[in-house]
Amino acid sequence: MTLMKSLMGAAAAMALTAGAALAEPALIFDLGGKFDKSFNEAAFNGAQRWAEETGETFREIELQSEAQREQALRRFAEVGANPIVMAGFAFADALGQVAADYPDTKFVIIDMVVDAPNVRSVVFNEHEGSYLVGMMAAQASKSGTVGFIGGMDIPLIRKFACGYAQGVMAANPDAKVIANMTGTTPAAWNDPVKGSELTKAQISQGADVVYAAAGGTGVGVLQTAADENILSIGVDSNQNHLHPGKVLTSMMKRVDNAVFAAFTDGVDMETGFNVMGLANGGVGYAMDDNNASLVNADMQSAVDAASAKIASGELAVHDYMSDDSCPALNF
Amino acid sequence: MDKMPKWADVVLIPLISLILAAAISALVILAIGEDPIAAVKLMVDGALGSTYGWGYTLYYATNFLFTGLAVSVAFHARMFNIGGEGQAMLGGLGAALVCLYIPWPHWSIALIAAAAGAAIFGAAWAAIPAYLQAKRGSHIVITTIMFNFIAAAVLNYVLVNLLRPAGSMDPATARFPEATHLPSLHDILAPLGIAFNKAGPANVSFLVAIAACFAVWLLIWHTKLGFEIRAFGKSEQGALYAGISPVKITMIAMLISGGLAGMMATNNVMGEAERLVLNSTEGAGFIGIAVALMGRSHPFGVFLAAILFGFLYQGGAELALWTKIPREMIVVIQALVILFTGALDNMVRMPLEKIFVTLRKGKA
């Protein structure tokens, strides 16, 4: 046994030195899967853009279960991948354990803050972007009732809902906002069937615009909204193209920019706390050919005015996560 | 009538099954345009080529050892315990409660207590289907499967609503206190002068699992209870005639089985994650069935099969990391091995038996 172990140790050393030569960046997707048309796909697009522009390659993995997080992190760190970017708040605990073991590796976590010298934490002001699409929803709605469908019921998603409701109220104080969450576990990020059912339930309550902030689940929401001939709002990536003429707009959360920036900065990146908001292009709403006919000039000017005010600090949108409460919506 | 020599039954059949599974997996990999030889090399390198790989292979093997033994014990009483997954989940809850709410002075005491807590929770979860089988004749296969879903729902509720620390978005418990952290193989082997990678999660519970193998061997073949379990498994009527109570044996065999499945938590919950997360069992309860089938329900066979599946799991993870083979394909490859070694046993066995019979006739 001892002999075998030492032989294996030698083999390991060789394998590791061979691996350490490549300082490729790595990207770890969360449970929704790489092609969720939303959050993870935005991260992938950012990495892809970096690869195309620089002609270099990167490592990636899609997680199969919650328990794999630490293994994926350690594996990449072990072979010298640098920097390692992880998409999702759920990595925080695993990263907190792993970061200290690899002081020379830079880690980037999106949507959560991990306080370590070699970690860059990127968080987004989703409430600001959601506020803008909320305004558009209220203006586009004829029934005066709009819906929100969240993925997993966590403060982060409530932050989306709260910003959205504030935007709706700002454009139409008499409007009604119906909010539902898909589930309480990470499985809620990838449950398009449930998303579809919730959409139908909200339509039966009178909603004629629904906003999905639910990762892969949102695909079902947008599909059902298009089938039932109401408008929907996409999230994270630009989802306008999924159902042209049926998706009012998408709340863009530029995860792709965050990943792109991390890969571009490479091993020499500045670590610490990064906030991506309206002011620095971290969030926004999507306009393209697919939704040009749905958004009239009045709507756009109103939204752009609000956007400028938020960016300049003149208008403050309440952040649910700052005090775990929302003035515009009860959960 | 003995149709085949023992060695053919124990060695040849699993080996041929494995080769068949490997061949079809190779075709699958070829079909998606990847190189099967490179894939195998990557799996072997990643799982066995370094102490880092061994750390993970043995970690997974420890999980499969516990669940494989659990299924084996039930098999000896001719019961098909498909509920290892649920029992291991509940075992995780038991271990987590023990680690979180009792201040332990040292990991060794914590390990004994957590193992006991995990075993009690796992056994309790197996007790209900066992009782329904023993007293009401509800089929154990159906009830244990259903209890997996109930266990997942219970765990879901407990983690989301009761054990999640304030301010955390992740449905998981808080970290266990420092004193309950188990030494990893790195910590154990370092004083012996053996360098073992620090990152691998294999820990002292691997030794607990080996001890459990030995204990199961003693129980099944060297105690009165083991004799009763086997007698009951061979023939319920015969056992009844010999004065063995079917209710008692059903209950006891399932309690032991559930307890063993629950004890897996000392490895994955206490040893690796050091907190309870959702899906911490990662399907080990189901793999345990394949491990028990392949190991012919003998602790030593289970040990070998558990190492093999540990290799497959870690090798599969490596494939996911370093190739473009999609994760669904890796599940397909793992499933093929389970299919051939577990479910399609007779496909290999029957032709092989015929060959041996003709050979024997030729001699006679």
UniProtKB/TrEMBL annotation, chain A:
Source species, domain of life: Bacteria
UniProt-annotated location(s): Cell membrane
Lipid bilayer topology: Lipid-anchor
GO cellular component terms attached to this protein's record: plasma membrane
Protein keywords: Cell membrane, Lipoprotein, Membrane, Signal
Signal peptide: 1-23
CDD domains: PBP1_PrnA-like
The ABC transporter substrate-binding protein PnrA-like domain, residue ranges: 29-310
Residue ranges that the Swiss-Prot or TrEMBL entry lists as coiled coil: none
Family: Belongs to the BMP lipoprotein family.
Protein name per Swiss-Prot or TrEMBL: BMP family ABC transporter substrate-binding protein
TrEMBL record, chain B:
Protein name: ABC transporter permease
Membrane topology (UniProt): Multi-pass membrane protein
One Pfam family from the record: BPD_transp_2
Major subcellular site: membrane
GO cellular component annotations of the record: plasma membrane
A molecular function GO annotation: transmembrane transporter activity
Keywords annotated in UniProt: Cell membrane, Membrane, Transmembrane, Transmembrane helix
UniProt source species: Parasedimentitalea huanghaiensis
Entry-linked InterPro entries: ABC_transp_permease
Cellular compartments annotated: Cell membrane
